[in-house]
Each structure stands twice: as C-alpha cells, then as structure tokens.
C-alpha cells in the first residue's frame, strides 16, 4: 500500500472512531436547568415548589452538559435572579429568575423581629387578596390586605394598597399569594356595557342622553357608544366621569 493511501485510511479510521463519541455527548434542556435551580434553593434552605416559574427558558433549548456541577449564585443581595455558570467543556451562563410570586412558602410575619446582633430585621410589604378573584376584577381596598415578608420581593411586587386599588386583574389570583405587576393592568375608565352620558354641544345648545359603551375605553379614547333611547350607535371622545363628547 502506498504511504498516501495508508495515511488516508488512518485518518478515515480516526474520524470513524471519533463519531460515536460526538453522538454520545449529552445535552441539557430547560427542565434540567430548572432542577439545578430548585436543588440550589433547597440546599440554601429556601425550597420552591414545582409550580414556581423559573426562567426565562426556551423549552427547545439544548446546551452542552457540564462536566462538573455548575456554579449558582444570586445576582445581588436583594435579587430573585440567579447566575448559573458552567466552566466546560462548553462555557455558558444563564441569568434565571425564580418567580416566587405564586409561591405559598413566601414567609409572612406581623411584628418586626430582631436580626442577629439585636438589630431590627429588614422587612418588606406585599399586597395579597383576601379571597379568590377572577380575571377582570377591578381591585378595591376591601378585597386586599398588606402583609410583611422577610424575603426581598423584587421590583414586580405590588407593595401598598394605594398602588393596587383601581387596577384590573389580568390573571386570576388566590388568597395569600402576593400580587405583582404581571397580574394587573391599568383599569379602563369605562368598561364595555357600562352606562355613560352622551353629550353634544353647539352654538346655544347642549344635549345629554344616556348611552352604553360598546367597548372598554380610557379617558381620551374614541369610544363607540349606543344611544340607549334610540339604539343608534355613535362615536365620541371619552372624557372624565363617564362623559362621551359627540361632535
């Protein structure tokens, strides 16, 4: 056999023997990443239940499995995000948020306690519903209560009744679970089906008649309204106090 042919055969055999090794390399997906975080939280004495969201993670993701256990650490002292880092064989890093919004294990206290050394323990306020509330509910003070937690809640949590009252729920909530900005949106000034006052003004005259909103609307919006008396559908500009100005 010629030397060149021998070399070619040798390279072919090496590549052929290497292929199965590449095929056997393992990868990790979103579920593995979540489990790593849950294990870390459990070891830290702050276990989270399975329904707590951990992300952002694409369910289709695949990353090379770590040769050793990845390092996990909080991004900051008061953050609910963790940095998950792998040193190899491929280096990768994920910043993952542990969304404790819906976790019933969120510690709640009433009196201000004492930290080590006799100093007052740091505490934060969160807002929770008194009863189960469906999507679309406009929050009122009687539906809510403020509670105190020893766990830094993060910027998405609603922290006072004044901040929550008047907002509309975009997701159903249950008693005792802290409300966040992801659960609510600014409530419309007028909701579909609500009675409004249709007003038309001109030189020397002003007419007002009851109407029914055909859609939700915010102050300043053009709103479709049905005249309750005639049944005629009109378009007007929504002003304060449920007044719709028709031109």
Question: Keyphrases for this structure?
Answer:
single chain; 247 residues; 4-stranded antiparallel beta sheet; alpha+beta; SH3 type barrels; Type Iii Antifreeze Protein Isoform Hplc 12; 16 strands; 32% strand
CATH fold field value of the largest domain: Type Iii Antifreeze Protein Isoform Hplc 12
Question: Which percent bin holds the helix content?
Answer: 10-25%
What is the strand content? Answer: 25-35%
Number of domains: 3
Report on the architecture of this protein:
With 247 residues, the chain is an alpha+beta fold. It has 3 domains: 27-100, no CATH class; 106-187, Antifreeze-like/N-acetylneuraminic acid synthase C-terminal domain (Type Iii Antifreeze Protein Isoform Hplc 12), CATH 3.90.1210; 195-246, SH3 type barrels, CATH 2.30.30.760. Helix content is 16%, strand content 32%. The chain is built from 3 helices and 16 strands. It has helices spanning 3-24, 30-43, 161-164; strands at 27-28, 53-55, 63-64, 71-74, 81-86, 92-99, 108-109, 124-129, 144-149, 167-169, 184-186, 195-202, 205-213, 222-227, 233-238, 243-246. A hairpin with a 5-residue loop joins β5 (81-86) and β6. Mean pLDDT is 77; it is low at 1-24 and 101-116.
